[in-house]
Structure formats: C-alpha cells, structure tokens
Write a structure and sequence with these properties.
It contains 15 helices and 17 strands. The protein has about 450 residues and is α/β, with parallel strands linked by helices. Helix 2 packs across helix 4 and helix 12 packs across helix 13. The radius of gyration is 22 Å and the shape is globular.
C-alpha cells in the first residue's frame, strides 16, 4: 500500500530553465556530461544529491520488449481508479517530451516539465563538480538519466502515492532501476536493442530479468513463456527466492469493427474478472498483466466495476491509433517482429482481404530486427512505401528499400508493389495527401510519433 512521508522539497536553489532550453537539454545533455560511459550510479548519485525524491512514494516498474508502455499505462489507470494519486513515466514520447511524464492521468505542463529538468540539470552539475573536485572522472549524463531524475522529482513534489515507471531499455542498467520498486512486471521479450542487450532472446531476457530482486512482488506477462525466456525468468526468481505471479487471460469475443470492444476473462490469485474494452486483440494480455500487477501492489482484489472503467478509458497513444479519418491514417508503434505480428493479427480481425487495405508506410531503426519486421508487415499490405524518421538510429530509406524489395521478390510479388522511397516522413505524408490516399504507418514508434505530430500540426 502507498507510503506516506513528509512533503518533499528540493534541497538547494535551482536556476530555472525556459521550456525550450529544457527540451534541448533533455535531447542532448552534452553541456553537463563527462567522458565516462553511462552508469546506473550516475542516477543514484543524482537522486542522493536531491535527498532521494523517489523514496517519498512507491515505485512500480514495468520492463519487457512488447506491451510495456500499454501495461504501464493500464496499471497507472487502474491504481487511479482505486483512489490513488498515481504518476506515470513512459518513453519515448509520441510527439512532445512532456508526454513522458503524467500525474493523475494528465501530462504535466510545460512549466512543470521545465522545472523538473532544471532540477535534474543542477543535480547533475553538482554531482559532477564534486567528482571533479575529488579528482574523479565526471559522469556522462544521458538524456534518459536526466528525464528520469526530472520525473522522479516532479512526482515527489506532486505528493503522489505511487509512480508506475516504464523501463527504457533492458532493466539491469536502466535509469529507472536506480529506484527501489516494491513491485515489478516483465511483459514480453523480443529481439530489441540487439547491439546493446544481446542477439538472442535468452540474453535479452537476462538483462530484463535483472529487475527481479528479493522482496519485490514479481509479475510475469504472457510474453515471457517462450522456453528460453522462461528458463531465464525461472532461474532469476529462484535465485531471488521469489514466487512470481504468472499472467493468463482468455478471449471471449473479438471486436467486429474498428472501435468495437474485445471481451476477455482474467483469473488472478485473488479474483476473476470478465472485462470488455474498446481495444485491439493484442491489448487484453497487457491489461491482464496490469491488473495482476496492481493487485500485487495493493495486496487485495480490485473492484471490477472500477477496473472495467479504468481500462476502457485508458488512452494508448500510437497503438492501433486512428489519427485521421479522411483519408484514413492509422499508426501503430509496433517495432519488432512479435509486436508487428500482433498488429497484423489485429488488422486481420477486420477482414483478410489484403488488396482492400491501404498502403503501408514503413520505417525502421537500425538496431532492430529489420528483416523480421519486414517479413511480418509487408505480406499484410498491397503496397509498401519506405521512409526514414529523424532518429539518429533510423535505417536509411535506401537500405530499407533493398530489404523490402528482397521480401517482395521472395513472395513472388511485382516490383511495383514498392510504391515509393521518401527521404523524410514529411515528404511521404505530402505525397500521400496529394494523391488523396489512405495509409497505415508502422515499424517504429518514431514513425508513429512523427506522423501524429505532423498531422496534429496541420
């Protein structure tokens, strides 16, 4: 249950940054960084400098490859429905940086976001100044380090009961692991950030399983059941003397059209729930994981009526998200083969006729399993256009074109099914708009975010 402590206050004066400068620093912390490799101790020392704001509320951590953002959002919504003042930390943003930080179901204001970043910047400056004075190497403070500390300060100043934190990458060295969560969940494991986490499911699972520690409630989502992954999870739980809660759900009825509800049942150690939510078919396993996690944190069963309302109303930006009706633009943040397969399964619920679907606008990041993404998505669409997002990790469109062309050839499809190669997302959208053509954008969350941002700006 929520911890109640005295009010938090930043223990030193902070030069307040304008919002634009705060965003610039959040995107590039070069002005306060050192030359050392990023370390978890960086965030720990920054939090210590700040008097451990994260100890003024309970932290709940969600790791995984697939479904962790939705699970994090669902869990925060459930806890709000149970009467808690709950905070939410997710990444990356879909359009604007403040979207990563929510208090009581609302994105924080630009002023609050800038204040949090200002505090984190000053904490980093103080920590590095002390290290240099002690003849130690200054820390490298990454953008994620900075934003995580900013969020934890914002939550403490808001007096929240609990904060649900989405792991950014892996788990072992992630900035959110500088906190001491009372409950953790691992959703699903896929090939992700392979240059950093490893190139097998077992290696990646080991990095994410590091969030499992003695004394924490542990929830294992349905995406952890692959044999090599499950072995890693079982070994870690045994080493930590933890009995995990394993999530399972049963679909009762599928949605019949876009916006229709899916009905499913969840059996937990404390209760059974039958729920209907207006979400695609891949979301019930995330909602089920969130329900078990919320139960584990609260130590009791949930109110089914409030649970139903919380899940149904919970937004999941960028997940099977219609951002324009005429012509249709549907975005999805699927970013690895497993999540892309889930997205295609959700599409198939509305009809199996590939020829009747819009063209796919595809982009990918170079540290993902790009060939796996292409194999999952390309057969589900009548034509494909490729582009590159503004991310520094974006795969060049020419490289993606070659991978798509190879896949089309393997399928025996015409080369003309590769409908276009665009240097930027804006160029691609302009071409589709001028032609009055609908589209589906998928392959990376950065593509979903850029499409949503460009259309909202119109």
């Amino acid at each position: 249950m929520p911890k109640r402590t005295h009010a938090y206050a930043v223990p030193f004066e902070v030069p307040e940054l304008p919002f634009d400068e705060a965003v610039a620093l959040a995107a590039d912390t070069g002005r306060i960084s050192g030359d050392a490799a990023p370390l978890l101790e960086t965030v720990v020392d920054m939090l210590e400098e700040l008097g451990r704001p994260d100890e003024h509320y309970d932290c709940i951590q969600v790791a995984g490859t697939n479904g962790k953002t939705s699970t994090t959002r669902f869990c925060a919504a459930i806890l709000r429905g149970e009467g808690l003042l709950c905070a939410l930390y997710t990444s990356p943003q879909l359009v604007r940086y403040p979207e990563r930080v929510e208090v009581d179901g609302r994105v924080v204001s630009d002023a609050v976001f800038a204040h949090g970043v200002s505090v984190a910047v000053e904490a980093g400056r103080r920590v590095n100044a002390a290290r240099v004075a002690a003849r130690k190497q200054a820390y490298t403070i990454t953008p994620f380090d900075l934003l995580t500390v900013a969020a934890l300060v914002i939550f403490a100043e808001a007096g929240v009961d609990a904060a649900v934190l989405e792991v950014g990458m892996g788990g072992r060295w992630d900035a959110t692991s500088a906190t001491d969560p009372v409950a953790v969940a691992i959703t699903g494991i896929g090939l992700d950030h392979m240059r950093i986490l490893g190139d097998t499911l077992a290696q990646i699972a080991a990095e994410k399983a590091a969030v499992i520690k003695p004394g924490r409630a542990v929830v294992l989502g349905e995406g952890t059941h692959e044999p090599s992954v499950q072995r890693v999870m079982d070994e870690r739980c045994a080493a930590c003397h933890v009995d995990p809660l394993v999530v399972a759900h049963e679909v009762i009825s599928l949605p019949g059209f876009l916006g229709d509800t899916i009905t499913f049942a969840v059996r937990t150690p404390r209760a059974s729930y039958e729920l209907s939510i207006p979400k695609p078919s891949y979301q019930p396993q995330n909602a089920a994981c969130a329900a078990v996690l919320a139960e584990a944190y609260l130590g009791r069963a949930l109110d089914e009526t409030r649970l139903q309302a919380s899940l149904a109303a919970c937004p999941t930006p960028g997940r099977f998200d219609v951002v324009r009706i005429d012509p249709l633009v549907l975005i999805d943040a699927c970013h690895n083969p497993q999540s892309c397969e889930n997205f295609v399964d959700a599409l198939n619920e509305f009809g199996q006729d590939v020829a009747s679907r819009p063209c796919l606008l595809l982009a990918a990041l170079s540290d993902k399993d790009v060939r796996g993404i292409v194999r999952a998505l390309v057969p589900a669409f009548p034509c494909v256009a490729v582009t590159a997002t503004a991310s520094e990790r974006a795969l060049p469109p020419e490289d993606l074109r070659d991978i798509v062309a190879s896949e089309l050839a393997e399928e025996g499809r015409a080369a003309s099914d590769l409908a276009g190669v665009y240097p930027t997302v804006a160029c691609a959208l302009q071409a589709f708009e001028e032609a009055g053509e609908p589209l589906v954008a998928a392959g990376t969350i950065t593509l979903a975010g850029e499409v949503a941002g460009l259309l909202r700006a119109e």
